[in-house]
Amino acid sequence: MSARTEHAVETAVDAGAENGSAALCPAAGERADRDLHFEVEQFYYLEAELLDDGRFTDWLDLLADDLDYWMPTRTNRLRRQQALSIAARGEAAYYEETKDSLAWRIRRFDSGMAWAEDPPSRTRHLVTNVVACHADPDEYPGFTTDDLVVRSAFLVYRNRLEREENVFAGGRTDLLRRTGDGLRVARRTILLDQNILQAKNISTFF
């Protein structure tokens, strides 16, 4: 992921959080039309179903080979310091993954060594507030106007064993690449609304 593309994705996350959907679609005509928006939503619903069903290998097929998957930590800051509340690249992160490293995590589930997920968790992924815009190649080098910048909100419920329950809420900013096989997640930045993780672990994908 180039520094310029990385900066563009992070800027979209920060601006979207402050200014709403218009931050991702600044010019008229850039927002995806109704049919394309429906396609994006169906893509996310399929992804959620695969994760909830534990079909992680099938989920990997929805990810681009050059995937960048990043979930930075957050800290409490004064209002005037909000630009510093999200960890930068190279600082603390819950996830900073490639497709290969996610595949390794998934293989580990079946190794008998992933005690945090054996027995496995039961999850329910809810995705909402989807805003899809055509990517600007000047802003996102290596992408075309057929690709999409998509912001969404999520709520993930997790139950494990008898009484362990966790709820994760947050937002995602994705770069979805158009391929011959459909949409694929090429970049994903995930921001939890919690600044301190309330769960014992974070073995769930978002």
Automatic annotation (TrEMBL):
List the GO molecular function terms.
Answer: biphenyl 2,3-dioxygenase activity
Enzyme Commission identifier(s): 1.14.12.18
The leader peptide range reads none
Key word Oxidoreductase present in the record? Answer: yes
Instruction: List the keywords (alphabetical).
Output: Dioxygenase, Oxidoreductase
EC top class named in words: oxidoreductase
Which GO terms fall under biological process for this protein? 3-phenylpropionate catabolic process
- Name the PANTHER family on file: 3-PHENYLPROPIONATE_CINNAMIC ACID DIOXYGENASE SUBUNIT BETA (PTHR41534:SF2), BLR3401 PROTEIN (PTHR41534)
Q: Which family does it belong to?
A: Belongs to the bacterial ring-hydroxylating dioxygenase beta subunit family.
Write the protein's name: Biphenyl dioxygenase subunit beta
